Known about the structure:
Elements: H1 2-34, H2 46-55, H3 61-77, H4 85-147, E1 151-155, E2 161-164, H5 166-172, H6 180-183, H7 195-202, E3 206-213, E4 219-230, E5 236-245, H8 247-291, H9 295-320, E6 326-328, H10 329-343, E7 350-357, E8 361-363, H11 364-384, E9 391-400, E10 405-412, H12 429-441, E11 445-449, E12 454-461
Parallel strand pairs: 7-9
Antiparallel strand pairs: 1-2, 1-5, 3-4, 4-5, 6-8, 9-10, 10-12, 11-12
Helix pairs in contact: 1-2, 1-3, 2-3, 2-4, 3-4, 8-9, 9-10, 9-11, 10-11, 11-12
Amino acid sequence: MKNKRLENGETSKLITLGFMIAFCLFVTYYFHFILKSDIIFTHLFYVPIILASLWWPREGIFVAVFLALLLLVSHLLSPLEASIIGSDIARVLIFTLVGTVVAILGEKKQILESRLRAYGTTLEQQVEERTSELRQSEEKQHAILDGIADAVIVLDNDLNIIWANRVAANQYGAIIGKKCYEAYKWLQEPCAECVARKTHADGVTRTSKEESILKDGNHINFMVSCSPIKNPDGGVISVVEVLHDITEHKRAEDQIKASLQEKEVLLQEIHHRVKNNLQVVSSLLNMQARNAKDEETSEVLSESRDRVNTMALIHSRLYESGNLSEINMKGFVDKLLVQLFQISPVQDVKITPIVRASDCSLPISIAVPVGLIVNELLSNASKHAFVDREEGKIEINLTASEGGRVNLAVGDDGIGLPPGFDIDESKTLGLRLVKILAKDQLQGNIEVISDGGATFRIEFDIDGERSAD
């Protein structure tokens, strides 16, 4: 079709040029042979010369040459004076010059047009290729977004849905052109804490947990993540919302919380029952101590009763506190002192207890042996440190470092320990129990100082990883 149009165009040009050349022949003949006049009529020759040079640059020069020769020949054959031929020669030169210049310009014009056409063709191909690549990239992105399990929604500045993937449309009812809060929130107004509006305002990515009702009527919990889409100037033009369904996760979380709450109640009840059972054992030991026939047996039973009471006190504190795995040692030591001096008061001696305990919490696996150690050392001091004295002082220091290192010191200002005392060689049950608890169970160090009284210093790690030096 294109070739046919080109052929038709060439034919039209040839016909037009032939008509003009014929007209020039007629005018030349008419003026030279009929009118026998040399009136300047050759301006008409420039039209076919210029057109021929423009249409066929190099071939068009032959038209100028032909018309120039026509003018010279007709002048020589005409009855005009021969002296006028000089002006015709000048016209002939001008014809040839004009035809040559126009031919050169036309040829350059054709070269430029050819280059422009080639460049345009290349540019069109590049545009088509780029358009195809963009279309393929867009299709690929849409395929990826449609293939993920989360809903992806694009919102404009007025919270209108301008794009939504398959999940968003099918599950959340996200329809293009609809407001987001109408589509999957069933609201008539934007949410009070709408993260999409905030992201539109400041361009900051945000997340929030929200809930809604789906098209099928099911209740759903989802995590919303809003990210801005910005123009080259940094302005926010739209927001991408990704809705991640966390309904099952939320349901599992609620079940775990309910299960933990049940376990806490059960554990609280266990501590309560253990405390009650230990108190029953304590009462039995107390009865046995009162009914014992000799003082030594009564004292042994009373000491056992105090140890049981110490363990019962720990379970009681755990039952009463909100934390069922750790116990506050300051409150525990204060309560232990009151309990010890109430149950086993020291006759004829006024003991002043001084407690310096940091407000730290210890796990029950540490609190029980620490409580028993304090109980044994307090009992030992109250019975043996203030012989033949009316008053005395017992001091308890309990500190814990950030690294989990615990320092416990129980001291008195009594008569001190016997010369050459060695706790490793002690035969008394209470001090042997202190050594076993401190070294074997707590994996700590124990130091005994007898200088103006007796002081027992114990150092250990809460995690039990550091063994005795």
